[in-house]
Specification:
With 196 residues, this protein is mostly helical. Helix content is 71%, strand content 0%.
């Protein structure tokens, strides 16, 4: 009987594994690729793959939590006196300014999400952490008299506009995602401050 392996778990580069998975999804289709296929192609064990990515969807949605963290950090750095909606715009634009090395994988992820009905339908859930952050930050910046209805509606509008702008960008052949998001949010928030 072979002795059980002991020691530290194998280190895996999640970005590299996700890139391998995205390539497979593009070649064969998301539904046709299994987690076993991804493990073999990435050169990792099935167990290791599931330790890093609980589901196949997680391979596609990588980076979402990091983006929410970047938005939070950008918001924290902005002065409280800044216009609340312009603060949101500034934070999203800064958080979605990627190094050029991440552009291809980000574009591949968004194209896959936009083209796959179930993945696209899960966008609201996946982006919920970022949305909750925006609600809390707007409530803090606008004060206790802010209309709860406006907070909900405008937060949803911001999240939807960012997602729509990012998927629009992903389908284009060039350009910068932050610039597209900035243009989308500029049109959306321009007149909101006058209403509050």
């Amino acid at each position: 009987m072979a002795a059980a392996r002991t020691g530290r778990p194998v280190e895996v580069d999640p970005d590299r594994v996700a890139e391998v998975a995205l390539r497979l999804f593009a070649e064969r289709g998301f539904d046709a690729v299994t987690m076993d296929d991804v493990a073999v192609a990435a050169g990792v064990s099935r167990r290791t793959l599931f330790r890093v990515f609980r589901t196949k969807d997680d391979l596609v949605w990588g980076g979402t939590a990091e983006a929410a963290d970047r938005i939070a950090a950008e918001l924290a750095a902005l002065p409280d006196r800044a216009d609340p909606y312009e603060a949101m715009r500034t934070a999203y634009v800064a958080a979605l300014t990627f190094p050029s090395s991440l552009i291809p994988v980000t574009r591949a992820r968004l194209r896959l999400i936009a083209d796959h009905e179930r993945l696209s339908a899960g966008a609201v859930t996946r982006l919920g952490a970022g949305r909750d952050l925006v609600v809390g930050e707007l409530r803090r910046r606008l004060g206790p008299d802010a209309s709860p209805l406006l907070l909900e509606v405008r937060t949803s509008a911001i999240a939807a506009a960012v997602f729509a702008a990012m998927t629009f960008w992903a389908r284009q052949d060039g350009g910068d995602p932050a610039t597209v998001v900035d243009r989308a949010l500029a049109g959306l928030v321009r007149d909101w401050s006058a209403d509050d």
